[in-house]
Input
Amino acid sequence: AGTVTYQWEVSWVNAAPDGFSRPVIGVNGAWPCPTIEATVGDTVVVQLTNKLGNQTTGIHFHGINQVNTDYMDGPSGVTQCPVPPGSSITYSFTVDAPGTYWYHSHNMGQYPDGFRGPMIVHDPVDPYKGQYDEEVILTVSDWYHSQSLDLVRKMLSPNNTQFQPPIPNGIIVNEGRSGRINFVKGKTYRVRIISFAALGSAMIHFDSHTMRVIMNDASYVQKTDTYQLRVSPAQRYDVLISAIDRDRRNYPFLVSLDINRDFANDATLRWPYNFTGYLAMDPAGDFTQKDVVTKWRPADDSRFSPLVPEPPIGPVTKTVKLDFTFCIDANGIPRACFNGQPMVPQKVPTLYSVATTGNDNTNPLVYGAVNPFIFKMGDIVEVALNNIDAAIHPFHLHGHQFQVLDRPASGAGRWSGRSTSSTGSVPRRDTVSVNANSYVVIRFKVDWPGVYLFHCHIEWHVEMGLTATFIEAPEQLRGIQFPQDHLDNCRKMNIPYQGNA
Ligand code: C2O
Output
């Protein structure tokens, strides 16, 4: 295994991915941000210097397990202090599992300003090797003309009594690069679809071409054919697409953004945000044909079974029930809450508190209002999420590919309190959408220590507080040492921390 090293200066640059020019957060003077590429077993090193001038920053590597390197996970106030302007941080960790991932700022609702990119971990023993000729990445995202900080400020105003998130100005594909994906007829492509969205779910349809799904998030699945996918914020799908070889022409594809309304099978054909791209097999040919979608009937996520069948893990040793909906805090600010409580961001990162509170670190009371849940090494945790809201919400757990046991359709009501009926193979992924007025039950095992966030991946809802903190095997984190550059950032931010004694 090798080491891949990236040196990044992060700064504001101008870009116009949808024709409207605005400042975005770029890397080494350019935007879109680069792709991180590594192979299973490699060490990935990212040396970041914050040249934004006016904002702190940081990077989270979404979907990466961070086995015994939780302090490299990236969320500010959770596993590190924010990186102030003029300062640096080095992330260094091993990638232990193959897949399509992405990285993004996990600081102040910052990734909708453009600080995000794909992260690919190649598999030397890819079970689908030989079934495709080439790989391409297809990113989809909602897009905003105002900067995130302003959008968040408006959202968190007491006047926002309807809990409205910022509404995007449009949709972009591949960060505004060409919407043409160059295909050669007869070849098969592994298309790695990634959603960078902050709010909307993307519906995708390729004219005349089936998608054969081989991976969801960073978990292989049994090859499953579909014509349409719904990709929620932060989700990924790897699909095989064989370029039709009976003719040589350009086939349109449609990406349509659902602005966090619930999806019923016969929902309106079009939301206001649509993007037509092309599987371009004839560069000199026609690029005017529009898609032929007449109905959205995306595959149900629950159809994707792990490549190696996996019954639910058990027996459950810890059950967590989380009801989520919107709420107003003591200051009259609109929030989003778990069991009535919004997460209140902490100055001292929770992981640092875990390291320094000794035997008290198994007591949730030492962590403040972060919705803390404490688990022991080896615990099999079941989380039941009740969606009390009338919209769909995509939930992500850091550090794990969890099992999805029950995921009923919209309007199914609340979790009964009883464990799953599933006995066969259940899906595994890191981001699952919870249907409106319905619920999801997930399970995972505590296999290594760390502090892992569990939150709605609608970035605006993170800023509203729809986050819980899973503190896993804290007994193994007492007195751990943090890298000096990480601590220097705390000192520069005047964040009191008495660790590394
Ligand atoms: Cu993709 Cu908490 O993150």
